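Re: your question about Sugar phosphate nucleotidyltransferase

S., sorry for the slow reply, the queue was backed up all week. Below is exactly what I fed in.
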Amino acid sequence: MKLVLLSGGSGKRLWPLSNDARSKQFLQVLQNDKGEKESMVQRVWRQLESVGLSDDVLVATGKSQTEILQRQLRHLARIVVEPERRDTFPAIALAATYLYSIAGTGLNEVVAVLPVDPYVENDFFHYIKRLERCIGESGADLALIGVKPTYPSGKYGYIIPKQGGGQADAWYQPVHRFTEKPSEQEAEGLIAQQALWNCGVFAFKLNYVINLLMEKGLPIQYEEMLKQYHKTPNISFDYEVVEKAERVVVVPYEGYWKDLGTWNTLTEEMSQNTIGKAVICERSSNTHVVNELDVPVTVIGLKDIVVAASPDGILVADKASSPRLKELLKHTDQPPMYEEKRWGEYKVLDFKKLEDGSEVLTRLVQMTEGQCLSYHSHEHYSECWTIVSGTGQFALDGKIVRVCAGDMLQIPAGAPHSLKALTDMQWLEVHRGRELHTENTTRLLTQWAEIEQHFETYSGSPKKDDNLMEGA
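Result:
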């Protein structure tokens, strides 16, 4: 069996910590058994490893999340990158074509799909393993996992099994219909009919989706699907496939399952009330502070409150009202002010527009020892770097030079450049030009060995100067 993890999200529900580049699944606010902070995606990956499923995982994600995924999963996961943000049907179609035409997965192989961020116990993943057997025994087109509701929630979709549609001792049931986010009163009636929460986990044989793509006139070869991705229906897999399928069964799950999609549900699973520089006085109750800024946050005499502070903004919210956050922010389009990359992270410190129309952006960058930037250029702005700490190798103008704390580096617009960290490094960048928040980077090379070889090939050997490292 193969697994496809869907990693998406607009980053609005847990603002200001989450943004388009760091959705909720990447926030490191949970704690593992060793007392170390981890994100939802790291928790799920750890659980998949513990039940022996991680080797068969493919992660489908967008461009903006690729580097943070690589960093948090230690480059262990295979990733397919959507050419543009669309819904779950295109994402699953892309993953299916990769499995079929690139990975060589057999058409009779069962593929399970699940979100990258369920908060569950390890036992849940044993139920995912059962989906393979369920598809074989039932002959169904699709097999789902349905969670037994603990209360009549209006936040989830419901799976309604057929009444008397299966054998009394069957461990799976045929599905009668689906209902999407009913009122709480309607949910009570559905639960009386043995309805289950739809947790977004389902399985199918690969040939089922490949045949669907052919029927819809869509490519089944991965490279061609990438080219025609914009032509795929921008719709969820539930609406496009699941609710139209003729034979669907569900496996009931009665264990612990939770969607940590809002601040009120996330804080319930946090092991401490404060993260970062924060003080909560004794008279405050059920209050959490998550502070990513360098200034302290103090809360006095408040209850049922969450305070979250990051370079993207500050939130003070009643926990019960926090689910409204996405709706309130739906028209905002602020670029991320903090982002994790495969090589480290950066934080925007200041941004301003000048009278002449040009822009100035200042950010603090941190890079992990042994990592490097791609060899890249920016057409619309120049950069000035000041090395704060650490040592590294800097590539520009046909030279690879050693840099260390106190050095200043000038990078003209359009000039390809790169940096490799010999130790953990930190530096300040000042960008000046236009379109500073847009993705106008031209990437030429990715690996440092490629960069060194490029310099040797096109410039003879790397040019020497007083600061050039031996053997560069």
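Residues 123-138 form the longest helix (16 residues). The chain has a mean pLDDT of 91.

Happy to talk it through on Thursday.
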